[in-house]
Amino acid sequence: MYPTTYHRPSSLAEASRLFAEAGDAAYISGGHTLLPAMKTRLAAPENLIDLRHVPELRGIEVTSENVSIGAGTTHHAVSQSGAIRQAIPTLAAMAGTIGDAAVRTLGTIGGSVANNDPAADYPAAVLALSGTIITDRRTIPADAFFRGLYETALEEGEIVTRLSFRLPEAAGYAKFRNPASRYPMAGVFIARHRGGEVRVAVTGAGNDGVFRVPEMEAALARDFSAGALKGITVSPAAMLSDIHGTAAYRANLVGVMARRAMENLGSAVAID
Amino acid sequence: MSSQDAQSLSPAAVPIRLTINGTERRLQVEPWTTLLDLLREQEGLTGSKKGCDHGQCGACTVLIDGKRANSCLVLAVVKDGAEITTIEGLGQPGNLHPMQEAFIEHDAFQCGYCTPGQICSAVALVQEGRAHTREEIREYMSGNICRCGAYTNIVDAIEDVLGQSSTLREAAE
């Protein structure tokens, strides 16, 4: 890693100001994406701004309508939160399947969402749960946030402070993991919201990052059962293709994982 | 025991305080130094291994404030104030941790390179209390790769210690 200067702000305003003044800077939280990038010298920020001591990024708040999670909350903390497990059990269960136990100790929900890795789990959850991304500048609905591979609506220096989710009536998540990397090759998060809207979001499979499947959403809005998905396919043209699986293979996985998610509502299934 | 003395550090080094295996240490670290490199190069604790250096193999697993983490994916400066436990802090020859004894008893390694990370991870797994079956042990140990393929015996060793701890819990109740 190249030399860098470390900053430890104790407020959101201070973090934002440090970033603006630094010229070349990166925020660090869990560091599980940034550090590998720095080691391979794909990233070499002259300044590191540690968000772990910013109080605005902490805490989990659950009401009868809403779950609000501080961006600095680790995957481990989300998976073990009694309040989240009760409000949106699938979200807590999904957090418990991210990476491995050591990764979950340090990786954070805000980092995952801000990074928008095409194979990260959280983008699918945020999109299907119709989540809201709250930053130090504004509030961004999930549909306007994710913009392709590693691209988001975040502006330079903007900090994700919280993730907010309205409580669904039902939700399920299923993913097929690459047995070596354990990143999903297809992960499908399904949520039925009050008023009957169903949202289906897919991670790991698309060649432009997380995406929704309107045909599945319409079918599940009519009949919220695994059987309603029969015959619905996604086009291989929009799928990733690499040494781990062809586009056609991933397109098929999306259908299989959607059915598995529907068959396991209230939990998260990880298959490898 | 320091292979990198204070004079060789750059002026960018910052002071931090860590409790390493029960001993409080006041250290100067360059901000780009990982916890793993600090432990191995500055503190002479070479039990934690550098396998992939990218958080994929688990050979560098240590306990940070009691939770397992990949020490290669943490900057030391970020953990200012934390308590670190490495394989050296779990037990020593003649006074082994029950998990270390179980790994020997079950022949849960071949080359041994991944073993310190496996054992730190396994100790955390027992403390977390979420793995009860062999399948769950495998899932919760998935971050620790053994290229010799000693997984069956590793699971045997962990199952053994889990059994001991549940027996102890029942005895206490």
Automatic annotation (TrEMBL), chain A:
The keyword Oxidoreductase applies. Pfam families: FAD_binding_5. Keywords: FAD, Flavoprotein, Oxidoreductase. Residues 1-170 form the FAD-binding PCMH-type domain. GO terms for molecular function: FAD binding; oxidoreductase activity. PROSITE patterns: FAD_PCMH (PS51387). SUPFAM superfamilies: CO dehydrogenase flavoprotein C-terminal domain-like (SSF55447), FAD-binding/transporter-associated domain-like (SSF56176). It comes from the Bacteria. This is Carbon-monoxide dehydrogenase medium subunit.
TrEMBL record, chain B:
Pfam families: Fer2, Fer2_2. Keywords: 2Fe-2S, Iron, Iron-sulfur, Metal-binding, Oxidoreductase. InterPro entries: 2Fe-2S-bd, 2Fe-2S-bd_dom_sf, 2Fe-2S_ferredoxin-like_sf, 2Fe-2S_ferredoxin-type, 2Fe2S_fd_BS, Ald_DH_CS_CYS, Aldehyde_Oxdr_Iron-Sulfur, Beta-grasp_dom_sf. GO terms for molecular function: 2 iron, 2 sulfur cluster binding; metal ion binding; oxidoreductase activity, acting on the aldehyde or oxo group of donors. Residues 14-90 form the 2Fe-2S ferredoxin-type domain. It comes from the Bacteria. The keyword Iron-sulfur applies. This is Xanthine dehydrogenase YagT iron-sulfur-binding subunit. It comes from Faunimonas pinastri.
